[in-house]
Amino acid sequence: MSFSGKLRKHKNAPEPTLRRLPVYLYFLEKVREEGTINISAPVIGKNLKCDPTQVVKDLSVTGIKGKPRVGYNTYELIHALEEYLGFNRTNEAFLVGAGNLGSALLAYQDNQSLGIKLIAAFDVDTEIIGTSIGSIHVLEYNKMFHLANRLNVEIGVLTTPNHVAQKVAEDMVNCGIKAIWNFTSAILDLPDNIIVQNTSLSTSVAVLLRRLNDSEK
Amino acid sequence: MSFSGKLRKHKNAPEPTLRRLPVYLYFLEKVREEGTINISAPVIGKNLKCDPTQVVKDLSVTGIKGKPRVGYNTYELIHALEEYLGFNRTNEAFLVGAGNLGSALLAYQDNQSLGIKLIAAFDVDTEIIGTSIGSIHVLEYNKMFHLANRLNVEIGVLTTPNHVAQKVAEDMVNCGIKAIWNFTSAILDLPDNIIVQNTSLSTSVAVLLRRLNDSEK
DNA sequence: TAGATTGTTAATCGATTAACAATC
DNA sequence: TAGATTGTTAATCGATTAACAATC
Question: CA–C1' distance B91–D11 (Å)?
Fold first, then answer.
């Protein structure tokens, strides 16, 4: 048995659980707006069409306690989820590649929170450098290196064409970026301590098509 | 033991496997361009940083056979993966909500295949109705019902604001759409036979932030 | 033939589900 | 008090990993 020096505030959630937590959070925010003060796992499960036992288990990772017969306090639960997921911190990020997908993300966050805050966008296309998307200016790519020194940005969003993705990712790492949200199909080869979160659209399509084909026997 | 009438051509892959298959496919296409004729699971594993045993198991769902000492024929494997994933069929789809994210998807598919083909886009905003994004015209939302009768579209892509998502999804179902690729945060309540593939951006962010926080002890 | 790789079967690991005691 | 719900522990289910025989 080992004692890791600093006490863990939260339990470590398995990834499937982690992926469900933002869904609960969105649902709870909707429910709070309707003025609901307490909500139970069975009610959450009914709305989200999932097993109430699993809801209880998932929510337990936040450390929040519910009351038998009553359920959880909506406000407390939202707060605990935001804290657990890190959504209440600023999480500033750079975006590289202000093309279609990139500008969609930039515009998106004006209306709805992503969980991270894009504070600057970079591109090499002189046609879009200097323009603004949402409230963010698109800057010359080379400016990234200079800006990275001043601001202490740890997250990079990669929405470039596939063929430059590896190079840009390496540049991001040199700028001190620790985690890359990769929307390209490129397979990034980076130091082990760098976190790469791949979000390929094909993955979702693959799952959708398969379920569709299976349903048609 | 039951005999299900029609012989299954392929094995049923677990979802984690399914999610990895497009990654193999992308890598193999890159490798084919370089002229590689045969490729083994250990080589794939080394490049994609995953376990060679798992590669073998994953690829086996396609039914393709490799040769000991040699590996798999690149071309055959790509073909089998495309077939298994359904990427070689047209998979025509409607998109509703030609805002930021919607237009990004429309423009995206001009450069790179999504695995599905968006053939029409609909919106209610008179400012964008009549415009073209990529090679697709944005049509008046009400036209969807008429067009759905003529074309036999089974897939709907939902990129509307959250508050209209449920209504649009119901309309899609009434148009005969069987599978919905949902980019909104809305929790859709639809008949059980309708396939809903949720692709929420927050989910990815949640996983990324957690891994980042964990890495910082 | 020797050695590398496939492919299958068994063992392990982890997540989900079920059962039940605690409690409000 | 009775009943509903939490929360924990055990059982099940499924995916990953390991072991090894088959084979080119």
Answer: 42
pTM above 0.85, yes or no: yes
Across the range B17-22, mean pLDDT stands at 95
Whether CATH 1.10.10.10 fits B15-85: yes
Q: Is the CB of B59 under 7 A from strand C?
A: yes
| CATH 3.40.50.720 is held by the domain B91-204 | yes
Helices (H), B41-90: 41-48, 52-60, 74-85
Query: CB distance from A14 to chain B under 8 Å?
Result: no
CB A74 within 8 A of CB A32: yes
Angle between helix B15-33 and helix B41-48 axes, rounded to 10 deg: 100
Identify which of B40, B195, B170 has the alpha carbon closest to the alpha carbon of residue B96. Answer: B170
Residue A201: helix, strand or coil by DSSP?
Answer: helix
Summarised one tens digit per residue, pLDDT across range B76-123 is: 999 999 999 999 999 999 999 999 999 999 998 887 889 999 999 999
Helix ranges (DSSP H) in B70-111:
74-85, 100-111
Exposure of A130 by Cβ count < 10 A (0-12 exposed, 13-18 middle, 19+ buried)? exposed
